[in-house]
Write a structure and sequence with these properties.
About 70% of the residues lie in helices and about 5% in strands. It is mostly helical. The protein has one domain: Orthogonal Bundle (Ribonucleotide Reductase, subunit A). Helix 8 packs antiparallel against helix 12. It binds fe (iii) ion and manganese (II) ion.
Length: about 350
């Protein structure tokens, strides 16, 4: 079907069929190789919707006051283990956020072909930059020696192990993959599962739980607030990668063999074991209201949710969530207006379109 437009003495013929062909060629992988950013017509509506949600959650570290955190950090009221948790959180995430962003830019966003998938992955990578920047802000506000953060990353074996677990996979995929081959498709599917469900989905949650437990006791309100924003962002990242994996499997049925499902389950088993070891390093002695056993139970609980989310059987099974309040921590909007109002301001500004800065 062709449609022609005559304007003045020029005639333009637009070929609808060709456009429809391009639409049909949209795929998670092996789709039409195009440099155009032809987001419309949308094939992956979820990707565009999530992009909008993520954009509306935009936050900037400098908007969050750190005075109370600094006072507490300098005071003698803080237990050694509480100080250690904050250091481990800053040390681990400083590197981990970068690793996730790097994998998106050099593996995931390179491999996917549909433009709306590249769009949401671009936002995802940017949010990892915001998270990394929030850690820079925490380090400089508290006056932590940045060399010490760097050293933690290399000198604490449980951090090193968590890092190798994901980096070895990401590095191996930086080559020309032949995505018509089942083995290479599975390598990419494994990358999606590893980063979305094992790393961001499970291995981030030990420290999320600890920092937000302190926040719940009114300790570190600034850092806690930034971790709440980060947790909310991560929940969207997990969903982006979950959807990518589910659509990839749907379009490539050869990927989802029983052996491959077993391989992913084993990968999660390893992720959980590494996280539990790491939790014991973050919390070598129990702090007020924080016990390592509870955090380990939480990891079992959360890992099972991630497995079920992609249609895999749980590992632990029947574990109760010891921290039901943690999910509520992500629900920021309700009270946000109340004491700060920043998040809604960003939304308002974008809804108004182009308004001059001085009018806002
Ligand atoms: Fe992040
Ligand atoms: Mn993330």
């Amino acid at each position: 079907m062709e449609k022609s437009y005559t304007i003045g003495d020029k005639t333009f013929v637009l070929d609808q069929a060709k456009a429809e062909e391009a639409f049909a060629a949209k795929q998670v992988i092996n789709g039409k190789d195009t440099m155009f950013f032809n987001i419309l017509p949308l094939k992956y509506q979820w990707a565009y919707d999530l992009y909008k949600v993520m954009k509306n959650n935009h936050w900037e570290p400098e908007d969050i006051p750190m005075q109370k955190d600094v006072e507490l950090w300098r005071s003698s009221e803080l237990a050694d283990v509480e100080r250690w948790i904050i250091k481990m959180a800053i040390g681990y995430f400083s590197a981990a956020e970068g690793i996730v962003g790097d994998n998106i830019q050099h593996v995931t966003r390179e491999v996917v072909t549909a433009p709306e998938l590249k769009l949401v992955l671009g936002r995802h990578a940017h949010e990892e930059n915001i998270h990394a920047d929030s850690l820079v802000y925490m380090i400089s506000s508290l006056g932590i020696n940045p060399h010490e953060c760097e050293a933690m990353f290399e000198d604490i074996p449980t951090i090193e192990k968590k890092t190798n677990f994901v980096v070895s996979n990401s590095r191996a995929l930086r080559r020309d993959m032949d995505l018509t081959q089942t083995a290479d498709k599975q390598a990419f599917a494994k990358n999606l599962f590893l980063f979305g469900q094992c790393m961001e989905g499970t291995q981030f949650y030990g420290l999320f739980g600890m920092v937000l437990s302190l926040y719940r006791q009114n300790k570190f309100p600034g850092i806690g607030q930034m971790f709440r924003y980060t947790l909310r962002d991560e929940s969207n990242h997990i969903e982006v990668f979950r959807n990518l994996l589910m659509d990839l499997i749907e379009e490539n049925e050869d990927v989802w063999t029983p052996e491959f499902r077993e391989e992913l389950t084993d990968l999660m088993r390893e992720a959980v074991a590494l996280e539990k070891e790491f939790i014991r390093d973050c919390l070598p002695v129990n702090a007020v209201g924080l016990s390592a056993d509870e955090f380990c139970q939480y990891i079992d609980y959360i890992a099972d949710r991630r497995l079920e989310g992609v249609g895999l059987k749980p590992i632990a099974g029947g574990v109760e969530n010891p921290f039901p309040w943690l999910a509520e921590m992500m629900d920021i909007k309700k009270e946000q207006n109340f004491f700060e109002g920043r998040v809604t301001e960003y939304q308002k500004a974008s809804a108004l379109g182009s308004v001059d800065d001085d009018e806002l």
